[in-house]
Every structure is written in C-alpha cells, then in structure tokens.
Amino acid sequence: MRASIYRKLSVLTLLMAGAGSAGAMSLVVKADAMAQRDELRRLQGEVAALREDARFGGTGYPELDEAAAAVAVTADNFNRLDDEENARNLYLSDRLVRIAEASGQRRYAEERHAQLVNERAELIAALERREQEAVASTAPTVAEAPAPLLLSLAEVRFETGLSELSPAAQRSLQQAAQALRDNPQATVSIEGHTDAVGSADFNRELSQRRAEAVRSYLIAQGVAPERISARGLGEEFPTASNADSLGRQLNRRAEVAIRGVA
C-alpha cells in the first residue's frame, strides 16, 4: 500500500510541477523544517481522530486507508527529502485527508437518511395499525392492514430542478415493479420531495413531477395505473438539513411505499 501511495504522490507531484505556479502548486508554500514537522504531526493526529470517528466505522474505509498511507509515506520520507518536496507531499496528503473526511460525512449522512426513512415507514405502519384497532373496537372483524414495504430510497434521487429519473433510480424502481408484478393485490403510493432551493410553489409543482415520473416508469414496467397513487409534497418534509449540498441532495427524492405485499 505504501509503495503504491508513494508512486501516486510522485506522479501527482510531477503533474503539479508541470502545471506551473498558477495551478495547484500555488497552494504549496515552502516552509521551514520545524513548521513542516508540525504540519505532519497535525495530519497524523487528524488521521488518528478519523479512525476513532463513528462515521468511518474504525477501519476498512478505503478513502481513509489511502489518506493514512499517504501520511505514513510522507513521514517515512520526510528526512531524506528537501523542503519543497516535503511541502508537496504534505499538501497532497492533506488533500487526501480532506477527501476521506468528506467521504465519511457523506456515508454517515446517507446512512442517517436511510434510518430516518425506515423510522418514517414504521411510524406510518403504527398509525395504520392504530386506525385499524380503533375500527376493530366497533366492528366484529376487520382485517389488519399490512405494514407498508418502504423501498430503499438512496438511489431514487434527482438533480436540482429536474424530475428525470437517473439510471440508478430506474434500477431501484425495477425492483419495485417486480414486487408489484409478483403481488397483484398490492398497491403503491409515491411521494415526491424537493430541497429548499426555489419558491414553495415551484417546489410543490416540481415534487409532483418527480412523483409522476416514478409513476410513469412503473406503468411502463407493466404495473396497472389504478394501483399507483402519486403526490408531490414540495420541500415540507426534509430528511436532512438544507444548509449544505449533501443534505439538499438527500432531500431531492421520491419515496415509494408498497402495501399489500405477501
């Protein structure tokens, strides 16, 4: 791993040098040896802290493993390289640490998003059971409504301002279509959502187009239109913060709930 990282650092250094001082090399500031050692210790400390971060699950996270190897290579070669070469390696190692940190935050946000989606499905199922129990208390026999099967939504996402389905979304919806074909008694409800960019009226209309895009795809896959309902809820039900780009990406989604699956 370290030999591979060293080769990668060497190639990146050559590319940076070839780009001239106006490019990434302008960010590499030659520092004295003491300042560079402080920077190396900072990177080593950040890698150790990320290893302890629950978002990374300890070890085995490729971006973090690569960043740790780059910092280790920089440390191994620190004494034999001059200040300029060390500055380049420190800069590249820092970029890899930043990438690893961002990747961990992204994975954590996606896992949290999936958890919130599952919790929402459980709440919907609990509310439906309560409604059925209330009816059952006044009627002799009422069949309990099956809990909704809420499909994985991580791939049913949309670009900003658009309602077209991505290839990943279509692959996810193929699973939904198959479940509906296998369970002809099942029905499906689709809810479209947006982030908070744009006006509330625009987002409400956009979310409806997203829900209709999912509905049209399922119909094209052989699901009867009368089994599908679709509605847009605009920006009112986010599952992540709209304050950053990752949260907004998670909120640009469609939720697909299938009821009546055996």
Characterization of the model:
The protein contains 7 helices and 4 strands; from the N terminus they run ααααβαβαβαβ. It has helices at residues 2-19, 33-52, 62-76, 83-136, 167-182, 200-220, 245-251, and strands spanning 149-150, 187-192, 228-232, 254-259. Strands 1-4-2-3 form a 4-stranded mixed β-sheet. Helix 6 links the parallel strand 2 (187-192) and strand 3. Mean pLDDT is 79; it is low at 14-30.
Strand proportion: 5-15%
Question: Which class of secondary structure composition applies to the elements?
Answer: alpha+beta
CATH homologous superfamily (4th level) name of the largest domain: OmpA-like domain
CATH architecture of the largest domain: 2-Layer Sandwich
Order of helices and strands: HHHHEHEHEHE
Helix content: 55-70%
Q: What is the molecular shape? A: elongated
Number of domain units: 2
CATH fold descriptor of the largest domain? 60s Ribosomal Protein L30, Chain: A
Low-pLDDT ranges: 14-30
TL;DR?
The chain is α+β, with helices and mostly antiparallel strands and 262 residues long. 58% of the residues lie in helices and 7% in strands. It has helices at 2-19, 33-52, 62-76, 83-136, 167-182, 200-220, 245-251, and strands spanning 149-150, 187-192, 228-232, 254-259.
